[in-house]
Structures are given as C-alpha cells and as structure tokens.
DNA sequence: TATTGTTATACTCTATAACTATA
DNA sequence: TATAGTTATAGAGTATAACAATA
C-alpha cells in the first residue's frame, strides 16, 4: 500500500500527488461533489445567508403548509432541537410563522409569510441556475440517471436500520 | 407554488408530506446521500473516531509519503489551518509524523507511523465493506457510471473559477 | 516579499439531555 | 405515560487573520 518507504527523498511535485484508494470510493467522490456544490450554492445564490438547508426548509413548508416541526425534522434529516434553531432564524427574518395548532396545542403549524413566499420566488430561479451549472457536463439522460442512482444509494443505506445520528458533515 | 392557502386545516398526515422542487435537484439528493453515507461510515467503520476525512488523510499520506501540509490541504479541500488541527489529532494518536523537510526547513514532510499503516490496513476492509453497502442496489456498470457522473459534476463546477471557501456543510 | 506552518479566535451546525406544556 | 417543542449546553469542524521562521 502506498509508495515504498525506501524511495528517494525528493519533495513531491504538486502534480505528482496520487489519491490511492480514494477515487474508487463513491463515498469520497460524493463528498467532493457536495463540497463543491455547497460552495457554488452559497456564492451564486444571491440572497445572503441562504444555505441549501434553509432553502430546503422554505420549499418544504411551502409545499406542506401547516406541517409540524417534527415532520419537518424528519423530512430534512435533522434532530427536533436543530429544527428549532433553524426556524428561529427564519422566523426572526419574518419568512416563516409558527402558528399554535388549534387541534393539538403542543404542536406548531408552520407557514411561510408573504415575504417568505416572495423570497422563495426570488431564490428558485437562482437555485435552478445553480443546478444547471451543476449538470453542465451531463446530458439530460445522464442527469436523470444520476438522480436515480443517488436515490438508490440513499434507499440502500436506509433500509439497513435505524441509525443513531452522529453529528453530520 | 405549494398548496393553496385556502385549503382545509386538517393536520398533514406524515405520509402526505411532499417535497416540492427538492427531488428534482441533484444538489439536494447528493446532500441526502452524503448524510446517509457519513452516518453509515461512522457507525460501521469500527475504530472509533475515524471520520471519512481522517481516513482520507491517512490514505493520502500513505500514497504520498513525504507530502507537505499545503499539498494535503489542497488534496482534501481544506484550509491550511484546518489541516493543522487534523494533523494534531492524528499525531497525538501516533498515526502520523511531521518530519522537518531537510530541503525546505519551513515545510513538514508527512509520513504514516507503523501504527498508522497498521490502522489503515485494519480500516481499509471496513471501508470497502461500507462502500459495498453503499452500492448494494447498483450493478457494477451503474457503480462505474455513478463514479463518472460525480467526477463530471465536480469538474463542471471547478472549471467555473476559484471560489472563496465558505464554511462547508 | 512570498511561502509554510502555526496560533488565536470565532462562527456555524448539530446533537444530547433535561425541561414544560400538553395529550 | 407519551408527544411537541424548547432550552441549555457541548462538541466537532471549519475559516480568517495575524504571526514566526524560512526562503
């Protein structure tokens, strides 16, 4: 494994770096892709302080008005308590409202405000533009296949069992 | 966009959650996949306190003995200063050594210790096993295609330009 | 002056555990 | 007892900026 340890001591040229096992690992490539995507998203989606997660929350609440925090937590793969701080941020920016659910006074029904919907309308084309850049080297067919393959990776892991939630990347 | 706001107020059933735009977005699916992968990696790769990043660093140093910290930083997409703390951790565990480079006394040549190589040998089959689980629903052909497509996503974004480094996911 | 590594620092994201109020 | 949300807290991971040693 790796270069033998009796090799010459000349410093490694930058372009001589090798990656060992890593390029074989889909997990590794996925990680690189996600880092690149996250950076591109944050740079190119104009409105400051919108991350992919916050955008996802806006989309979900818009698509499911009245949804509960626990449902949101499950949908975006966060702990309930993490959702609280995400919503605190969005509510402070008047993008989201928590409305005490009349049928169950423990729960909050989540709704976008008018400003939240407006922001979502502004962001969506920017996100689609980012997405277009993402797949700039893929044919329509390849894009569809990538979606399918990624979906199957997730499904393959989730079937395994209920995992605990180590602090994610 | 979303459900009309004059709909009945019955609480959303859990299985009625919809995802709006999100399933169309490759960026979103990639994120879900990466979260699932990270969790599976941490649960299933036995040696405690080895994350995908730390494993990647071990592989890279093994494949490029004598490499410099700056080269490592570029290879794993971290800032120089972040590499310092990663290496501090690995050096404290006696897995990696920094050896003052004789030809350039500013730089450190990085090497795995015997223990580091041994750990890498222990981990590698576990990582491959994790990887196998990852692609359990993919044919060999599909696996190869997924690797290719992910590589092209990264390449497509990186050509754009030198991005600053917002704190990543 | 530029480069390499380091330090000091701060920020973001996230989870855990214990708590409140409802059910 | 169980569930929904909250709080307090802690930890991991990362970047920025200023610095020392070396080139």
Automatic annotation (TrEMBL), chains A, B:
GO terms for biological process: response to stress. Pfam families: MarR. Coiled coil: none annotated. GO terms for molecular function: DNA-binding transcription factor activity. It comes from the Bacteria. PANTHER family: TRANSCRIPTIONAL REGULATOR, TRANSCRIPTIONAL REGULATOR, MARR FAMILY. This is Transcriptional regulator, MarR family.
């Amino acid at each position: 494994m790796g270069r033998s340890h009796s090799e010459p001591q000349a410093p490694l040229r930058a372009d001589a770096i090798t990656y060992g096992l890593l390029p074989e690992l889909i997990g590794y490539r996925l990680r690189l892709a996600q880092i690149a995507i996250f950076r591109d998203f944050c740079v190119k989606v104009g409105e400051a302080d919108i991350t992919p997660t916050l955008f996802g929350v806006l989309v979900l609440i818009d698509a499911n008005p009245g949804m509960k925090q626990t449902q949101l937590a499950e949908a975006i793969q966060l702990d309930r308590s993490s959702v609280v701080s995400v919503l605190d941020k969005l509510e402070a920016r008047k993008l989201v409202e928590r409305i005490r659910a009349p049928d169950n006074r423990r729960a909050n029904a989540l709704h976008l405000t008018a400003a939240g919907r407006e922001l979502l309308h502004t962001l969506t084309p920017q996100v689609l533009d980012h997405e277009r850049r993402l797949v700039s080297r893929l044919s329509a067919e390849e894009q569809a296949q990538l979606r399918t393959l990624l979906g199957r990776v997730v499904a393959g892991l989730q079937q395994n069992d209920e995992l605990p939630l180590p602090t994610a990347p």
